[in-house]
Amino acid sequence: MRFLLICSILLLSATFASAQTKEEIFFADVTIVVENGMYFLTGSKGGGSGPQGFALLQSRDLKTWAVPAKMKDSLGMILTKGDHTFGTKGFWAPQIFKDRNTYYMTYTADEQTVLAESKSLFGPYRQKEVGPIDGSEKNIDSYIFKDTDGKYYLYCVRFDKGNYIYAAEFDMKTGKIKPQTLKRCFDLTEQWEATPNYKSGPIMEGPTVMKLKNKYYLFYSANHFENIDYAIGYAVADSPYGPWVKSKNNPIIHRSIVGENGSGHGDLFEGLDKQLYYVYHIHHSSEKVGPRRTRIVPVVKQWDEKAGQYTFRVKGNEVIVPVLAEK
């Protein structure tokens, strides 16, 4: 009897551990939208079956997430391959923003950046004319920023013997960049941006841009995503094009700070509690990269009077592990 009891306890423990693992969210290149007292999360789907594209989850507290009730039949899909959308594979890095009465999504597919739109946050996001934003060469990891003067800018990653972040003015009416404005933001200059744990060309990607008190802040990831030192830093400028000055406190998110490998490529958002957060992904485990897991960490924003700009750091001991609600 004692032997059977021990076996039962071990079996239950293993089942519980497995259930706990399955409950985690496996979205990479993540973003969170805050609307109507709720959080909405999407990202590159990791592992599992189902249609290619992007799904949406919602939460009230950042901790427990579920497919919105109205989207159960569609498995939460807000953009799907072949549904008036560009791309056959490699659906990565979605970003959602609202402008006037329309919701827009930029994303990557077939190593091209794409713009789709919807009248509802819940989609479906589609294109009037199916095609990429700029098919002149490969470009990924798109982010559209609207400046206070009403101009739009597209930040994306272009391949040039490495991955570099570029900025260009963006025409929302045509859904295209103004090629003559295209400019590289910066080069690889810091030791943390290229550690020897994974050999690759220069990689800087996953841009997010915000403006505070007439300063522009560009948050980005560096190193190859398979590198355990994949990490996040930021740079500051007086214009959307730079020149960008990288923070001396970089990286602000790294395995040495948050305690998990491959911590990078996400997005900043302000919570319902007015707290600033960064949502990002990590490696699946210390042994393998994918499917990558989703994480959220509070961000501390402080004004530096001497420098005339904000500084950022994260509360590495307060990382949130988002999980799926019980079915």
From TrEMBL:
<dbReference type="InterPro" id="IPR006710">
    <property type="entry name" value="Glyco_hydro_43"/>
</dbReference>
<dbReference type="InterPro" id="IPR052176">
    <property type="entry name" value="Glycosyl_Hydrlase_43_Enz"/>
</dbReference>
<protein>
    <submittedName>
        <fullName>Glycoside hydrolase family 43</fullName>
    </submittedName>
</protein>
<feature type="signal peptide">
    <location>
        <begin position="1"/>
        <end position="19"/>
    </location>
</feature>
<keyword id="KW-0119">Carbohydrate metabolism</keyword>
<feature type="site" description="Important for catalytic activity, responsible for pKa modulation of the active site Glu and correct orientation of both the proton donor and substrate">
    <location>
        <position position="141"/>
    </location>
</feature>
<keyword id="KW-0858">Xylan degradation</keyword>
<keyword id="KW-0624">Polysaccharide degradation</keyword>
<keyword id="KW-0732">Signal</keyword>
<dbReference type="GO" id="GO:0045493">
    <property type="term" value="P:xylan catabolic process"/>
</dbReference>
<comment type="similarity">
    <text>Belongs to the glycosyl hydrolase 43 family.</text>
</comment>
<dbReference type="Pfam" id="PF04616">
    <property type="entry name" value="Glyco_hydro_43"/>
</dbReference>
<keyword id="KW-0378">Hydrolase</keyword>
<dbReference type="GO" id="GO:0004553">
    <property type="term" value="F:hydrolase activity, hydrolyzing O-glycosyl compounds"/>
</dbReference>
<feature type="active site" description="Proton donor">
    <location>
        <position position="205"/>
    </location>
</feature>
<feature type="active site" description="Proton acceptor">
    <location>
        <position position="29"/>
    </location>
</feature>
<dbReference type="InterPro" id="IPR023296">
    <property type="entry name" value="Glyco_hydro_beta-prop_sf"/>
</dbReference>
<keyword id="KW-0326">Glycosidase</keyword>
